[in-house]
Amino acid sequence: MMGEGPELSRIRDELIPNGSPGIELLGRVHDAEKWQRIASSKWLVVPPHTLEDMGLTPIEARALGTPVIASRDGGLIESAGDHALFFEPGNVDELRERLQEAARMDDQDYFLIARKSQDSLHSYLVPFSFYHTLYHKATQTTVPHPAAT
Predict the structure, then answer these.
(1) Domains along the sequence of the chain with CATH
(2) Does residue 115 carry a pLDDT above 70?
């Protein structure tokens, strides 16, 4: 588990105070390690129930070809994409069902979802050049032509 979200202390203190086989609580990690771990993961699980504004991590996962299991929380619905597996925020039973669904998925279906999830980013994200152009248009001042004065 990566990150320092609002539930980290509760997870450490109440849910797995003595650790658990197969679970590593990493806390905050540097970007290079985060991207390496996401890229080498089969799924990215994003479970917040905090009215997430956008959710950058699902976008990063999709860019790396890793599909997403996410809560229907705020902006995660859009950033996780149409091919994500969703569950209601805070619904542990539904999260378990999505995890089991992902575990049962055959390779062909998995790779199709991973590819579609990655490919659909092109229609979701606006190219950086759009913001660059918009910024320059917004900061330009119109200077009257000398002949007009």
Answers:
(1) 1-40 (no CATH), 42-136 (3.40.50.2000)
(2) yes
